[in-house]
Write a structure and sequence with these properties.
This protein is an alpha/beta fold. The chain has 2 domains: 202 residues, Isopropylmalate Dehydrogenase (3-Layer(aba) Sandwich), CATH 3.40.718; 140 residues, Isopropylmalate Dehydrogenase (3-Layer(aba) Sandwich), CATH 3.40.718. It has a 10-stranded mixed β-sheet, with helices on both faces. A hairpin with a 5-residue loop joins β11 and β12. The radius of gyration is 20 Å and the shape is globular. The two termini are 24 Å apart. The protein binds 3-isopropylmalic acid and manganese (II) ion (MN).
């Protein structure tokens, strides 16, 4: 009996469509090799959807996602839509509602700097002789992003605006369990990042982390205040294994980490909902980098982040772990063999400088 799955494909704007094309070619190849099939429903999102129908997340896009086993997302946004009201802007108007609608509370953002790519990192190379591999687990559907009340009004004759950072204990518990489980599958060290010296929500966060730690005795848990964590990350990114933190802190920390890793073009991400029976998740998978409008349409964008996002989809939402591992190994081999898109090139004579399609070709040859 052949295994078959449904994927919603939301390529979006900027480099999204061109890197998505390559990720889908890689999917074709692993389907053939590992004997499963996917049915892909391509839908508009972000600026592309605004242009087509006036909304960054049209109902038919949401419907296609609802009928899928997982969402492969490209990237959204660009100068053309920057002046729209916030709720209509591609990033906010599409990403936040998708996360909320599907309850995608666990955002996994790997920050990996391969030993052969340390030159691309802004961190002094003597600090990261072997590169690093940090996983940021960010809470994605709570905290100050969504907390109520939120608003703007007049008080004492002037305008005030406010947001609420609020967490239910159960929200903290579930994201901590995801992070402990992730740490269990790798270096077994978890750093919980908070601001418990100031924020009530962080005091609850820290207490809850200590409680959940009892379920995972094999994992070493420590705590850092977010300001200190930001510094330690600059000092020694390779001293971290897994970080877990609330929504806004995670937004900032994961960008810091992504920058250190050298190229956004290399980093995938997963946004997962509650684990289902059988261990799989409904999830949305997207490159950590943005739509990069400055290089869109030139055929030079690095497709690896999108290709690795497809691998994460295979692992977490489709249960095709072998195919995922094969893609990851092929990507690593391609980098080892010296293939470089512009974002990770040094100009060294040994490098093979390639564009989007050639990079994917090289990965396909190694699959
Ligand atoms: C991200 C983005 C989004 C966020 C924005 C576009 C709403 O920065 O995915 O990190 O803040 O979560
Ligand atoms: Mn962000």
């Amino acid at each position: 009996m052949s295994r078959s799955y449904r994927i919603a494909v939301l390529a979006g704007d900027g480099i999204g469509p061109e890197v998505m094309t390559e990720a889908l070619r890689v999917l074709d190849a692993v389907e053939e090799k590992f004997g499963f099939t996917t049915t892909r429903e391509a839908k508009n999102v972000g600026g592309a959807a605004l242009d087509a129908s006036g909304h960054p997340l049209p109902p038919d896009t949401v419907a296609a996602c609802e009928q899928s086993d997982g969402i492969l997302f490209g990237s959204v946004g660009g100068p053309k839509w920057e002046t729209l009201p916030p709720d209509l802007q591609p990033e906010r108007g599409a990403l936040l509602p998708l996360r909320k609608h599907f309850g995608l509370f666990a955002n996994l953002r790997p920050g990996v700097c391969l030993p052969s790519l340390t030159h691309a990192s802004p961190v002094k190379n003597e600090l990261i002789p072997n590169g690093f591999d940090v996983l940021c687990v960010r809470e994605l559907t709570g905290g100050i992003y969504f907390g109520q009340p939120k608003g703007r009004e007049e008080r004492d004759g002037e305008v005030v605006a406010f947001d609420t950072m609020i967490y239910r204990k159960s929200e903290i518990e579930r994201i901590l369990r995801v992070a402990f489980t992730a740490a269990g599958g790798r270096g077994k060290r978890l750093v919980s990042v908070d601001k418990a010296n100031v924020l009530a929500s962080s005091v609850l966060w820290r207490e809850t982390a200590n409680e959940i730690a009892k379920e995972f005795p094999e994992i070493e848990l420590s705590h850092l205040y977010v300001d200190n964590a930001a510094m330690q990350l600059v000092r020694r990114p390779d001293s971290f294994d897994v970080l877990v933190t609330e929504n806004l802190f995670g937004d900032i920390m994961s960008d810091e980490m992504a920058m250190f890793s050298g190229s956004l073009g290399m980093l995938p991400s997963a946004s997962l909902g509650q684990q289902k029976e059988g261990g799989l998740y409904f999830g949305m998978y997207e490159p950590s980098g943005g739509s990069a409008p400055d290089i869109a349409g030139k055929g030079i964008a690095n497709p690896i982040a999108q290709i690795l996002s497809a691998a994460m989809l295979l692992r977490f939402s489709l249960g095709e772990a072998e195919a995922a591992a094969a893609i990851e190994a092929a990507v690593a081999k391609t980098i080892d063999d010296g293939y470089r898109t512009g974002d990770i090139a040094t100009g060294a004579a040994s490098e093979k400088k390639v564009g989007t399609k050639e990079m994917a070709d090289a990965i396909l040859e190694r699959l």
